[in-house]
Design goal:
mainly alpha, ABC transporter involved in vitamin B12 uptake, BtuC, two-stranded antiparallel sheet, 6 helices
Length: about 180
Amino acid sequence: MKIKFFLIILSALAVFSIALFCGPKWISPMGLSDMDRQILLSIRLPRVVVSVLMGMALGASGAVLQGVLRNPLADPYILGISSGAALIAAAGIIFGVTIFGVFTIPVLAFAGAMVTGIFVGAMGWKRGGFWPDRLLLAGVGLGFLFSALLMLLMSVSSNEGLKRAILWIYGDLSITDWSIIPYG
């Protein structure tokens, strides 16, 4: 057990290190120039830290979702929650909503996920408890519906809005800097 844990930590540190030094411009860890140091500290390190924090948050949310619903199959994708979040966030990006400043898209995604989760939960609730079959069926159905609406929205959007929405859905970290890490 200790060896597995050690190997997992070692692998994570190796991936973290590779992510810092690999990119469009290869940076050698030996003999950093001022430009390389600036790229590492202001661009790559914040992105790697944010990606690690995002991975931890996604893992924790999946574990909580499985624990609360007492279902090892429960995850945000099967329950349609991720599709609801993506639909509302992409709509905010495409229509240029900026009501919460730099936090607009995360707030919209959270709201979309919450509304979808409540709706799926209401559809899966019957006679004093969740019925796993109804819950999963409602989640998969709503996930497909929201994905179809997302594709429709993206097909009628402008090129710039489409590009930004696709990048956000893929997990783009290009605007990441040290200022947003405390809010993660």
